[in-house]
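Teaching assistant here, posting this on the class forum so everyone can see the example we discussed in section. The complex has two components, and the goal was to see what a joint structure prediction looks like when all of them are supplied at once.
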Amino acid sequence: MKLFDALWKDAPLATRGEITPKLGFLLTVLLAIVWLIPFLWMGVATLRPASDGINAMAELMPSLKPTLDNIRDAWEIGDFPRYTLNTTIICSGILLVQFFTITLAGFAFARLSFAGKTLIFYLFLMQLMLVPVLLIVPNLKLVAQLGLYDTLAGVMMPFFASAFGTFLMRQAFEAIPTELEDAALIDGASLFQRIRHIYVPLSMPSFSAFAIISVTSHWNDFLWPLMVINSPDKRPLTVGLSVFTKTAEGTQAWGTIAAGTLMVIAPLLVTFLIFQKRFISSFVTSGIK
Amino acid sequence: MAATMRSISRRDEMSLAEPAALPVATSAAPRLHVLKRFSSRLKASLPAYFLLLPSLVFLALFTYGAMGRVLIDALYQRATPKAPVRFVGLDNISAVLTDPAFTGAVVNNLIYAIGTAVPSIGLALLFALALSRTHAVNSALRAALFLPVLIPMVAASALFLFIFLPNVGLLDYYIGRLLPVLPNWLGDPDIALYAIMIITVWKNAGYYMLFFLAGLQAVPEDVMEAAHLDGAGPYQRFRHIILPELKPTFLFVTVIAILNAVTQVDHVFVMTQGGPSNSTNLVLFYIYQQAVEHYDVGKASAATLLTLAALMGLTALSFRTMANREGGP
């Protein structure tokens, strides 16, 4: 009860006695524990020796003889270093080009007036609605025609323009006082110099918010790379993990599957736990990725 | 040439200074004037177009162009995989509409959409209400509920493959003991679709929670307190103050949840491959099957087209909502 009082100490005095909010809170705590169980199992199963047998596999109590064998097996069976490298290349390649395209387009929408602005704005907005994953069939054909089938560039290309990023940058640029730009203009700074030295440095929080959304969503992309990539050595983590899971499932090597899954999600989880606040606020702005 | 341009730009400057007076001054050739004004405006727009060009090229290739190609591909078909394509009109569309696998996938997808959107939004609201005050305990709980959002659907599927494993899996090991007959979660056509829904709810509730948390910030604390002083209990305050305030959030989250129900179906690929007996076949998986497994681009495009059209109603809705959110051009 003491703990409860502490949690409600900033609630309005008269409402502290109410029971419904506390029941809701208890239910949420229970569900949060349930929500964590798959992660807990993943950790426990990763460290469980194969000698414990299949019947103890579901046990959530950690094994008394923890082992790293599963991690070693996963590392050897699946080509995880290669998959990680491919995913890193894909995510950073997409992000770099996106930074370029969204900065320029965001600046045009924020600071320039031009013919057809409304029309072009809605053209961008349309991309937010037409979820790219629905267009896999025509886009696969185009990627093949461009000679990019089975290449990482083919995986990256459809995401080079981002309406979401453009709108995010537009918003950030609009908040920058025009006086700064005027001063630079008097000093004879060109358009690109003004963008590069005034707008970009002042919009770093928006860039990092966008980077978080972009990297997590492309780190997790599965269907599109599955269709574009054919060679095993070009698979990203998600595709690699699905193939790995299929192989290990056949031999009932659940400890190895848990270890492989852990390796795939560990980078994201660690980054999230470090930059938790930033992640959460970025995801709130994301609405539709 | 240079002289005309200069005169155009000068006229443009005049028009900026006194736009109303100009038509009278140049009444001799109004049409020419409109043309000149247009071209000068175009010229002034060039830097902006230049900045927009990189984005527009990729949007043209992979968004608008893709839509055009779907439309065309849906009208062509090959008699055999090696034969040249020929125009078949609406044959692909009618072939898809009469394909029981497609209609089955549509029905499954509707059940899946409702069965994932309603519980995940409901839970998201519960989580947000319970954790709206910010302190260390609540932050930790929010982080716990948010973790599944971060991980790839494929990774979630790998974990749930074991959770749903018959007899020795996590679910049977702990809960199955209480049931007289152990269900085969992913192997029973009557249950499999609901099993994969559980994964989606687990993965998305924490995401939607964020929007409700943001929405709750807008509920004024003093109104809540005033309502309490007037004798409104927790339920009444929820029903008459919080819910109306969260209406836009509900709309927005519902749109995202439905879009996710169509597009976020990686677990079908990893766990069930649409089976058993097509019971977890969803529209996007059907499209993938037609394109990649049956090499039937015509049918795949027709199914894509139908899905796009079906999402148009939703699109129009979210279009308006989001245009308001973005504040217009």
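For the discussion questions: The mean pLDDT of chain A is 88. Chain A has two domains: 2-67, 78-236+268-286. Think about how each of these relates to the inputs above.
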